[in-house]
């Protein structure tokens, strides 16, 4: 037994920690001791978020900071609208081309309905992210994203993002459905369906 351990073992009182080790922004009744002592990303140097030529290069920083999630000067609702439109538009193709009704006349409509269903599931997950009553986790600044959007990481901002995502996702799916349903693409669809059905 070392000299450091001996006083703690002999005394019957609980060990008191120094105030500098306790996060004073969190009320003790809100969370348990495990959350209070949890390792926080980026601020801890042992996490491994290091500045490398890949994550701190000009191209990477310009690309990441121009994504709708990190772009400055837009509202959370518009962020969600852009992200949702991309998801809805890109999810439509796999559902329409590889779905169980791909060789029928209802392939395009089944793809649309499947995509809208997937957007609804993703929207429900966004809603559940803040359902327990806590605000979303605020992303700290790092070497790639120096100014993360602070208005997005509030309950109101996340709710606006979620509603924009739902509207954009459904709109992107309908837009892709309209594009695939036009006459000039109708001749290409059997070729694409034949490629996927060959396997």
What does this structure look like?
- The chain has 199 residues and is an all-alpha fold.
- The chain has one domain: Photosystem I PsaL, reaction centre subunit XI (Photosystem 1 Reaction Centre Subunit Xi, Chain: L, Up-down Bundle), CATH 1.20.1240.10.
- It has eight helices and no strands.
- The protein has helices at 5-10, 33-36, 58-65, 76-98, 107-129, 155-180, 183-186, 189-197.
- The longest helix has 26 residues, at 155-180.
Supply database-style keywords.
elongated; 52% helix; single chain; 199 residues
Structural class by sheet pairing and helices: mainly alpha
CATH class: Mainly Alpha
Largest sheet descriptor: none
User: What value does the Rg take, in angstroms?
Assistant: 25 Å
Helicity level, as a percent range? 40-55%
Helix-strand topology string: HHHHHHHH
- Low-pLDDT runs of 5+ residues are 36-42
CATH topology: Photosystem 1 Reaction Centre Subunit Xi, Chain: L
Tell me the distance between the termini: 68 Å
SSE diagram, text form:
Elements: H1 5-10, H2 33-36, H3 58-65, H4 76-98, H5 107-129, H6 155-180, H7 183-186, H8 189-197
Quick overview of this protein structure:
The chain has helices at residues 5-10, 33-36, 58-65, 76-98, 107-129, 155-180, 183-186, 189-197.
């Amino acid at each position: 037994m070392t000299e450091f351990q001996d006083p703690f073992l002999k005394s019957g009182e609980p060990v008191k920690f120094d105030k500098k080790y306790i996060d004073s922004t969190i009320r003790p009744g809100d969370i348990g001791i495990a959350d209070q002592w949890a390792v926080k990303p980026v601020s801890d140097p042992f996490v491994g978020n290091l500045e490398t030529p890949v994550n701190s290069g000009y191209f990477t920083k310009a690309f990441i900071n121009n994504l709708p999630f990190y772009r400055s000067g837009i509202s959370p609702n518009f962020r969600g609208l852009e992200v949702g439109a991309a998801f809805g538009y890109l999810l439509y193709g796999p559902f329409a081309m590889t779905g169980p009704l791909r060789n029928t006349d209802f392939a395009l409509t089944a793809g649309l309905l499947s995509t809208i269903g997937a957007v609804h599931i993703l929207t429900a997950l966004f809603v559940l992210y803040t359902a327990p009553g806590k605000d979303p986790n605020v992303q700290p600044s790092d070497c790639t994203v120096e100014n993360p959007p602070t208005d997005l990481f509030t309950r109101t901002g996340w709710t606006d993002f979620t509603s924009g995502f739902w509207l954009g996702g459904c709109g992107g799916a309908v837009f892709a459905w309209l594009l695939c349903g036009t006459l000039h693409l109708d001749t290409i669809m059997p070729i694409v369906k034949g490629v996927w059905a060959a396997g």
